[in-house]
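Subject: two folds for Thursday's group meeting

Dear M.,

Sorry for the delay on this. The cluster queue was jammed most of the week, so I only got both jobs back this morning. I'm pasting them in the order they finished. Each block is the input sequence followed by the predicted structure tokens. Could you check whether the formatting survives your parser before we put anything on slides? The first protein is the one we discussed after the seminar.
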Amino acid sequence: MHQLSLTTVLLLLLGFYGISFLLTLRIGRKDESADGYMTSNGSIGFGMSAASMTATWVWAASIYAAASSGFQYGLSGALHYGFWGALMIMFVYPFGRRFREVAPHAHTLAEIMHARHGRCSQMILALSNVLGSVISLMVNFTAAGALVSMLSPLSFLQGVLIVALGVLSYTLWSGFRASVLTDFVQLVAMILAAVIIIPFMFYTLGGAELFVTGWHRLDAEQADFFSKKAILEQGAPYFVAVLAYAIGNQTIAQRLFAVREDLIKPTFITATLGYGAIVIGLGILGFLALLAGIVPLGGDLNNLVPQMAATYLPLALICLFFILIIGSLSSTADSDLAALASIVMTDLYGKNLARGKPDPRRMVWIGRLTMLVATALGVGFSYLRLDILSMLVFVGALWGAIVFPVIVSLYWDRVNNSAFTWSVLAAFAVFLSVRFAWLPLTGGTAYALELVACVGAGVVIGLMAFGLLGRRVGMVCGLLAALAVLPWAWGEMRDYPVLLSSLLAYGVSAIVCTAISLRNAQRFDFALIGQRVTNFQAA
């Protein structure tokens, strides 16, 4: 395997982060404000917002996990990851328009829940967002360490520290605005690298002949485009997770609140197409590795993509690949830092600790302190070197518990704080109990859980149809989906605990939220949300 020299790696990192830092100098201190630091005052145009959304979600995990999926599940693996991930972006905009309609000046989804239900619901959503963003930081720093240690003389921890400090250097001062500005340049670099590297790798491994010489290495499931194993272990759990990522992830919500309201739809459709094309293409690398008989170094799938680059690419393309991965993980890491800053600034300080009198100048410094703490946590947790694909599915499923209560709270005026809180807590408890095998999946318990999981499947399909086609179509599609899944799920879904627990998060939250809401006779006036959620004063 080829390795870059220490000097080359340091020059690449210094050049990349140096250029990113110089770009952020365009954001003058005279423009500093709490609202600008969090959402750029909701005034970002189409090009920058679409590029930022695409770059944020074409992250190192997308590349590594898509390749891992292609390697593990064969022909359909990369498609499952890239297609459902792209679909996640697509389904943001129908609900996003509703969020902006009821709260034009919102900074976080938890802030909207504070206006809708109160502090308890707000903190549940805020804490789940914090957990997800810290895990996302950990995943990105883990990918950075794996890349640097594989392609250079530097160690895993040294790579993590350099990248963490590099991202922090250009994000700390200007927050979200710096993230959006650098995303555009990083996306251009990633597209250029992908367009060159993927075809080169394909022809280096043997081109079309590879499908003839390597097909025998695939088992029956890996060779089947409609593989049941790939669908149930990868496709279906990730499909279930996509809507949760759309609602539970503050990095998406932040861009939703930052783009001009009239540009939400074209922005998210463009990002959908861009993400899908790039990630499916990069995921094919894992399938090519499977055909070529490549064995991940140390049995760690996180090493697969860097290992292929170090083995089959010439020095110049290794440098380009290095920039591709660094750009992808940096564009998401800076988004996570900006998201965490906005949550602490708005939901912890602005709506609670400030007691109705937030100081915008202090808010900005609280955001910067949050970024420092979050970076330290991300670096610390990255040393655990957890499997990236497993972490993504876990976080997405965990967020599934909040999706139904959040969405329904902004459409149904009978949902109250008790319905939101108890539905989320019950869904969390059941999800964790099944995911970590605390409940026995046998006998009547298993059948009951499978029945609720079918309801969860109906909720997922129903919400997606509702977002695009309206309430009636959504309810019909949800009912048909639940009935269609039932014959297979009854007695079999217990064998797929990842999928079962993911669907249970949706099913339990929907059942509990609906049951409590139906007992509530009071009606909520949605106009109150816009009155309660306002911009903070400029610093």
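Second protein, same layout:
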Amino acid sequence: MSLNYQLNGLDLPDIGFNQADAFSDIDRVMLSKYGIYPYENEDEVKAFRLDFKYELENNWFSSIEFGARYSDREYSNNRSVFEYGNDGTFSATQPPLRLTDDMTTVVDWQGEFSYFPSYLAIDLDKALNAWFPNGIPQPVQTWGNAEGVVDLDGDGEPDTQGYTTNYSWTMLQSGSVYEEVVSAYLMLNIDTEIGKLPVTGNIGIRRVDTDQSATVLENVGSDPQLGAQYIVDDNGIVNDLYAPNILGIKYTDYLPSLNLNFKISDATQIRFAAAKVMARAPINRLAGDASASVNNDGEINGSSTNNPFLKPFYANQYDISYEQYFEDTDGALVVAAFYKNIDSFIDTIAIENFDFKGNGFNVPEYIVDPVSGEQIETTNGVYTTAVNNAKGGYIRGIELAYTQVFSFLPSPFEGLGINASYSYTESEVQSITDLGGDSVSQDLPGLSNNVFNGTLFYSYENFETRLNVRYRDDFVSEQVAVNEQVVNFDAETVIDFQTSYQFTDSFGMLLQVNNLTDEPTQSYFGTTSKTGTTQFFGRQFYLGFTYNH
């Protein structure tokens, strides 16, 4: 079979198959491999908080607040695996499954994708029951044929229980994260006048003590003096290469803040805020789960995109806004500006031609082709890891918001209104990616330069309706493929519609349509000429009724 595939930027590709009919022919398609690689997570948090407030009588401060919070969090991640067959060819020892009519359905592409060849949708339960008539095997946490597996029966060979693949990653990527945080704060609430200008707000400081750690298995080369132990997997396979350990850090942060509200008039006010802020990494990013695996070509790739030594995102931020409230009608105009000076943030870097063996990873010198029996020498590939990027940089921008209810219009139009906002943001924080083959710069994840949100709404007696439009230009974010990767996303405009009617005081109806135009989500790698994914999630319709008795 031959395939011609030509990218067309963000448009659908040109494709051609010399045997397109084969994709939906059960006499020419078989299942060659079944693999399952689950993540099982548990997250438990215990927290206690105590707050106090004391009223003051002076010309500057109305009250003082202070308090403390304690939290103890434990997160666990367990990996497991089951594989049968081969995804590169047909295996003689684990033969493929011949499909039948009762376990397949021919699916034809529709709309813009109609020129793609039809394919078979497989009833997984029926297929697995036919493939494994004695019961579907469940995934397990196992060493497999990993280096360090112990010879228990004394025959001179590691007791791998028949495994030929190294599954040590299921053991190395499993473990727990512990996070203990103690914080205390002191805040003065401001209520005073400067000249004849009323000023309210608060000033305070928060101290945060953090103790974070994660369980790891460190490769110590089976040396008992370095803590090597017998570590048993779910199958009873024993490995003595590793030493269990708990790694982590303790650190203390002081976070001052100031908020001021200047009341220029009953309809006008200016707000100012300054603070040092922190944002912790998601708890799973603190796991100590460095691992590596070998693909069918013998290339070793690995990652530790999680890291128990990661510190939070830190920034000093400043905000100022002018707010004008309309006196004759409901509505307001807000103009705001912000500036964030980022001290450090979490970044993911990729190291090419990484020496996995030299850095203590459990990787083989060669792999064996399951069909030919040929030994394929392994080669070093890419190692991806997470670090605290200390370069930092700024994020700055402006925001405009306008809300107006046109209550001055004659009936029945007095319920017409609009709510609109626009923001422009820019940043000097950038990272480098080479996912598309060439090294190109990427902005801070989640950041769009231009974002617009507008809502047109109308209300009359028992009837309400609204139309919302959300636009953001291109941005960078994570996408889950074989592994998580940071990619570019194209600009998108999403339109939602909602209407409701209250028939009686007790009976009402609501109709809602999300993504009215079926806007796709499109990703690419560095430049739009290197397409990533095009995903249509469809329109969502919701019809609901309420009844109160």
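Two things I noticed about the second structure. The helical segments are 124-131, 169-172. The two ends are 66 Å apart (CA to CA).

Cheers,
T.
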